[in-house]
Write a structure and sequence with these properties.
Length: 328
């Protein structure tokens, strides 16, 4: 299959990174899939496969990356400088941060109108998008199975100013009209969310993919893990969609500014307390305490902000300790 570069999301910012000599001796390709031993790339030359070992730093490649490939030769020359990148803290005991996707324009944060809806989890995704300078959009699925869709939508709208929220039935393509306005040539969308929220069904409706789907449990509203790797898909109406495996607990990494942007309703009260060293607990003249008492600030939002900031502090301390150990 042959692709045209605009169809794959090629932009002037990438073209400017190529010299005139490189334009004659090489060509750009976009990473479509990454597996343990190899990756698959798409370009205007077709589909090609490269062993992971040909990259100088295999942990630093992501689905959505653009790479430069020589017309003659078996090793990619380099990775193009990214426009955006989504990064999460690696799960478990792994030390390296995990790249979710690269060169994304819009992040579809997918959750469902049932027990899976979790405002604090959505805030993590919003902070992830804000840190990466990617436009977020919340997709509320399974609207056909809910008797109170408006309640879920109103909860989502309160999480960030001017946040766009779309309620859909992923099996009904007519309900996807709002999402399709972003499915245009050159635009790259990434899907994130927990397992069982309907990401695979949504992908099947927006692309020619045939993703496996599974029913959710009636008891807890949780679904089985279907998608196991990240991959590119061509959208029916143009553009690219990047699917990602379900994430139950998203751990942020180096996302201080993203958290600040996501919680501007909280940060507006910081720095205006009577005392500069205010701990925001029982001190007199505490702007946070006054806002909570008056109802101007939501307690859950304040606690969520504190939790994310504490995680950032712990992460910074851990990275400092690791650097100190390496110096010894």
């Amino acid at each position: 299959m042959i692709f045209n570069l605009p169809q794959l999301g090629w932009k002037p910012c990438f073209q400017q990174q190529m010299s005139s000599d490189e334009e004659n001796t090489s060509y750009p390709a976009r990473i479509a899939q990454i597996h343990r031993s190899h990756c698959i790339v798409w370009s205007n030359k077709g589909i090609a496969t490269f062993e992971i070992g040909v990259f100088s730093d295999p942990k630093n490649i992501a689905v959505g990356d653009w790479i430069l490939i020589p017309n003659e030769g078996e090793r990619p020359l380099r990775i193009f400088e990214r426009e955006t990148v989504l990064i999460r803290k690696a799960a478990g005991q792994r030390k390296h941060d995990q790249l979710i996707a690269a060169n994304v324009d819009t992040l579809f944060i997918v959750t469902s109108c049932n027990q899976d809806f979790n405002a604090s989890r959505i805030e993590r995704y919003l902070a992830l998008a804000a840190e990466a300078k990617i436009q977020p959009l919340i997709v509320l699925t399974k609207m056909d199975l809910s008797d109170d869709v408006d309640s879920y939508k109103n909860q989502a709208l309160k999480l960030q100013n001017e946040l766009r929220v779309e309620c859909v039935n992923a099996k009904d393509t007519s309900s996807l009209a709002g999402l399709k306005t972003l499915c245009t040539e050159g635009h790259t969308i990434a899907l994130v969310g927990s397992s069982g929220v309907g990401k695979s069904t949504l992908i099947n409706s927006l692309t020619d993919a045939d993703q496996l789907t599974a029913e959710i449990s009636e008891e807890d509203g949780k679904g089985k893990h279907i998608t196991t790797s990240r991959s590119l898909h061509l959208l029916h109406d143009g553009g690219i969609l990047i699917d990602t495996p379900g994430i139950r607990e998203l751990q942020l990494t180096d996302a201080e500014s993203g958290i600040e942007d996501t919680f501007d309703d909280v940060t507006q009260y910081l720095g205006v307390c009577k005392f500069k060293n205010c701990q925001h607990k029982t001190e007199k003249g505490c702007a946070i305490k006054n806002a909570l008492d008056s109802g101007e600030l939501d307690l859950r939002r304040w606690e969520s902000y504190q939790k994310l900031q504490n995680e950032q502090t712990q992460l910074s301390s851990l990275k400092y300790e690791n650097k100190s150990k390496k110096r010894r």
